[in-house]
Specification:
3-stranded antiparallel β-sheet, Endonuclease, Chain A, alpha+beta, 4-stranded mixed β-sheet
């Protein structure tokens, strides 16, 4: 009977380790019925390997990246989860990986682990935490808000772009979700970035704002929405052989749409046309910059 119980506990440990990327916590072993003496015996015989204080790998000492993250979470106690750049790394949207694994906890206390950065998240709503690949982690929206505190503008833009490309969360969905977090730290910064890069004008608004820019630098009115080299173009000056395209929803671009844009530009280049691209935000909010680039290009072509 004792052997049967021992075998059942052993199978339970292996099942738990498989579910947790190869690691278990000491408190979990005690809950399964292992004594402190039994745990020490398994450490001495190599059936367990200590990877953090109170956390062990089962069977082998080497851990996958997911196993390392899970070990850090287990070392910080129950209800812990990946947060900030470590969460971004698991989602695949952060290129940089911090030296310390960033773990959120719902209690006060200092970290006893040099390689773990503990972040107190006492008031974080439960809906802001879920799981990914069986690892507790902040939600995509919460992760993006948290990244504002640890990333500069360039890295933050890259993370937004990667989140959109990998379909972790689309840029327009993120922008909409931020309405539920108004007033929280980081939300205003994200709004500013997303407003800039998902900003779209209607065709009528675009022409109303762009055409005066062309007139101010001495250009005649361009042809608009005509077909050239097999593609519809936004603005075209035949005497300069100049094509101007405008883009909205910069981040919400599928691979197929990006490939079509590339073929469009290549067709115009092959036919000997110059081309410029401006975002809708630039046309609306960076008027002097657009005027300068357009004027310099037109002067060179003339």
């Amino acid at each position: 009977m004792a052997r049967t119980k021992a075998g059942g506990r052993s199978r339970a440990v292996w099942a738990l380790a498989r579910a947790q990327h190869g690691v278990v916590a000491r408190r979990q072993l005690l809950a399964l019925g292992y004594s402190r003496t039994a745990i020490e015996h398994r450490l001495k015989t190599g059936r367990l390997h200590q990877v953090k204080r109170g956390v062990y790998s089962v069977g082998r000492a080497e851990l996958s990246r997911e196993g390392e993250w899970m070990a850090a979470i287990l070392a910080c106690g129950q209800d812990s989860f990946l947060t900030h750049r470590s969460a971004g790394a698991l989602y695949g949207i952060c290129q940089e990986r911090p030296e310390q694994t960033e773990v959120g906890v719902r209690r006060r206390g200092r970290s006893r682990h040099q390689d773990i950065k503990v972040r107190e998240r006492l008031s974080l709503p439960s809906q802001d935490v879920g799981t990914l690949y069986r690892i507790p982690i902040t939600s995509p929206v919460r992760t993006m808000i948290d990244l504002v505190a640890v990333q500069g503008p360039r890295d933050l833009l890259r993370s937004i772009n990667e989140a959109d490309k990998l379909e972790v969360i689309r840029a327009d969905d993120l922008r909409e979700a931020l309405h539920a977090h108004v007033g929280q730290p980081g939300v205003k910064v994200l709004h500013a970035l997303l407003d800039r890069d998902t900003f779209v004008l209607s065709d009528e608004e675009l022409e109303r704002l762009f055409l005066p820019i062309a007139l101010e630098i001495g250009l005649p009115l361009p042809e608009t929405k005509i077909w050239l080299n097999g593609y519809e173009v936004d603005f075209f000056w035949p005497e300069l052989k100049l094509v101007v395209e405008t883009d909205g929803l910069r981040y919400h671009r599928t691979p197929a749409a990006q490939a079509k844009d590339a073929r469009r530009d290549q067709a115009h280049t092959a036919a000997g046309y110059a081309r410029l691209r401006f975002t809708h935000w630039q046309v609306k909010h960076e008027r002097e910059y657009v005027k300068g680039i357009l004027g310099e290009t037109a002067a060179r072509l003339a």
